[in-house]
Amino acid sequence: MDILTREFYARDTLEAARDLLGREIVRRLEDGTLLRCRITETEAYIGRLDKACHAYGYRRTPRTETLFARPGTAYIYLIYGMYHCLNFVTEEEGEPAAVLIRGAVPVENGDIIAKNRFRCKEKEMTPYQRKNFLNGPGKLCQGLALTRAQNGLDLTDGAGELWLCPGAPPDPAAVRTGRRIGIDYAEEAVDFPWRFYL
DNA sequence: CTTCAGATGCTCT
DNA sequence: GAGCATCTGAAGA
User: Strand C closer than 7 Å to the CB of A136?
Assistant: First the structure.
């Protein structure tokens, strides 16, 4: 099974954010079960120049330490006291930057993902639940059972808990861009078109 | 379909 | 102590 290598992550964050669309996230649970979903929405965060990034201006705190790790590292943090956000560290090591995964669609073991989200099987989901399955960073982490316990994982380790497969590379013409969500505090950075979706 | 309040706890000042 | 890269359920149009 092909796994995206460190080179995939070790490059310009905006390029990586575009290229991550259509790729597959694979999550291995403790019992060996594989959850798989295809990425449909991403956002780029670049500490060097981006006031929306936790590591803006190379700010180093216990939380942002993960952003300074090797590219291909999972950055997962708690938000609003009850949800988690999944990011993939990009650029060369020491350049704090990452791609936030904002949305996906299930590919394998949708029943387990549905159970994590709604405590029911995929076929038992209501139309409303179907529409709101994994279309948000907190929803995605809930579906894939990701928490801060997975922060700092090496995504290039196919024997680990989390990695990516090539999936279907995005058709460049199908990629939409827009402003990022939920960063009203970020001054001029609120208008950066760093959100990508299919 | 839309808006809105409330949940809940960590992070950094 | 203030704020947060969010989500849900309830209520209204």
Answer: yes
